[in-house]
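Hi there. Long-time user, first ticket. I'm pasting a complex I've been working with (about 810 residues overall). I'd like to know whether the download I got is complete or cut off, because the file seemed smaller than I expected. Thanks.
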Amino acid sequence: MNHRILRPLAVACAGLLCAGMLAGCHGSREQAAFTVPESFDESQNYEITFWAKNDTNKTQTDIYKKAIEDFQTLYPNITVTLRLYTDYGDIYNDVITNISTGTTPNVCITYPDHIATYLTGDNVVVPLDELAADPAYGLGGSELKFDGPTQDEIVPQFWQECHLGDTCYALPFMRSTEACYVNKTFVEDLGYTLPDVLTWDFVWEVSEAAAKKNADGTYALNGQNVMVPFLYKSTDNMMIQMLKQKGAGYSTQSGEIELFNDVTTDLLKGIAGYTADGAFSTFKISGYPANFLNAGQCVFAVDSTAGSTWMGSNAPLMDIAQDEVVDFETAVRMVPQFDPDHPQMISQGPSVCIFNKDDPQEVLASWLFAQYLLTNDVQIAYSETEGYVPVTTKAQNDPAYQDYLSRAGEDDDTHYAVKLAAVQLLLDNLDNTFVTPVFNGSASLRDAAGSLIESVTKSVRRNQTVDDAYIQSLYSDTVALYHLDQTSAMGGKQDLGPLPPTALALLGALVLAWVGILVCVVVRRVRDRRAGQKEAKR
Amino acid sequence: MKKILSLLVAFGMVASMTACAAQSSSVAESTAPESEASSASSEEAATSEAAAATAGTVLTHDEYMAADVDSEVTIETYVQAKQSWWEDKATVYGQSPDGAYFMYDMACSEEDYDKLTPGTCIRVTGYKSEWSGEIEIMDGTFEIVEDAEPFVAEPLDVTDLLGTDELIDHQNELVSFKGLTVEPSTLEGSDEEYAFLYNWDGSGTDGDDLYFNASYNGQTYTFTIESYLCDNTTDVYAAVKNLQVGQTIDMEGFLYWYEGVNPHITSVTVAG
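Hi, the file is complete. Here it is re-exported in full:
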């Protein structure tokens, strides 16, 4: 082979190698990071999509539609298209699908756990800190065409819940917690007095008493063939709150999994025992807690405060036939506690995130709409549809909202007593709420926590042995099923650790090669110059 | 010098390939749990099938209905319709000549789901469950019975059973309702009448479940187009969107149960 050809080939190979390396490092297509435009261009039209969740509640749908209509009146150059979901999981799945095709919505109802997964893409979700602080278009900004809240007027806990690490990726939209809806009549029929704060011991004891049967197989408490004394809707929350109340591990802030610990094992064994006694079941196994409660087939029904309009003999929303509803007194309590003097309950509820687009003006239009959802009109109207709490103090202190709270029990619709008791429960306990750490995989961990309870409960009902060996096997199956050995902190780029030796060798060899090539070129030139000088001397 | 440089470049390329290989290996490692999970499911499936085979007790429909809730059951049935598939779980309507079954979240790969065409005979092992009145097989696994003759059920006319206690005896069967009259649906707080609603209370949009009312012998019943079973691209979805109050209609569908009868309609014909 001609050496004149070989040398450029070697150089080209090295160059290609480097280019390939860079391309490999660069990975898939990146979206440019969003920067806040100086002003909003009102001469252009923008079409934005809003993926929202409603609780299969017509009034909520109407409020979304009205909010869009009112917003479009203020900003005629922005058209908002609403897409409704009734399940957070469906939104999450659709967003994941649309990230890969670059067709994410502009504004989306979401949970921070889900955002952590979205952040595995580059610049997919818009960080909101800069937008929120913008003097013109930020929270309470001078150029807004509506009376939105300032940052200080967003409840600090709720604002903080929307941060992943130090960066804000969402605006809180509504907040709720879980409540225990109690058939107080049944509790007293069993000879107990309902305490202000339920303890787990009390709930289990009453539930076991409620599970007693007559000789004919019917339940002594209700005379029916069906009785699920304690029915829990979201077992992920059940496990998370139990662990929090016990001070036991769930996960660290940075995403290390601590769920599979001795406290969890003890809790699962306890749940297994109560299930065997007929005292406990779950939504996934038996059905909606509200249906059992209202039919007089349940004593303690735990569900979101956002499900309060379904709870009780006079509930405005009902899935069972009217002739199946029994008359009883409904009491609303916080979820059971291990330490009633230091209650702890989960904070949940929808937030709103903004997806990045090529046109910063489109993102700004999205931000304006997201912010509009925090205005008092939207906040108060939406919160009144269910047991939600507005996320701004501006709305909470609004005379209209205070009037709403003061009218509990005036009717069984807007002022339904059970709903307002659930709302008051959260308002009274804002300082007792908590959220779980958010990281890429935290949504899976949450699912896994619930699945432990579901699995144990199912197994007991199916006459399978639940012992230490069963639980250890369940743990390893759960880790595999939910990929819990692949979680990472804070979403985004993963810390892949130190470079492997092969990579170091590669980089070292390339550096040496380039140094060698340069030395070679320099030496060659020096030689040529000397040869030239010798020729000249001749 | 050139030799040294060539060697270094060659070494660099080899190291690069090694690095690529290492990356492939780490991908394989990172996906291992999924494989393990899949094989765990397969093992569970195999175990269940083995248990069923050992027991050799494929239940008749009567025996299935008599079995306790939460007991393990094995049945053979013929696929009539598929409702959904997600993350290796399928929800399927099945019917045999002696009765019908609803398989909820049955372990099923996407590849196997494609094989579940109407009439296909499957042997299902799972746990009998009851969810809000619906008797179903939960956490099931299945195998296709290759040598079985296909069976596609003819709809049973249960119009005269509407409102009777006998209707539940046909739970999950393919049934028909004939000569019903479309009745108006209204939204809370409004007297405006609609022939159908998106979701039970009108809170949905196109693509969501459709709910509509129809009467027979002076009694009104609610029917559903379940959007996972029949989405907004199907004829039945379009037919219901075109209904007018007062029309006489014939329907076919599966006799699903949710806190009472809640037929999942698959066909609507305007008869007059």
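A couple of notes from our side: The radius of gyration of chain A is 30 Å. The domain at 46-176+348-409 of chain A is CATH 3.40.190.10 (D-Maltodextrin-Binding Protein; domain 2).
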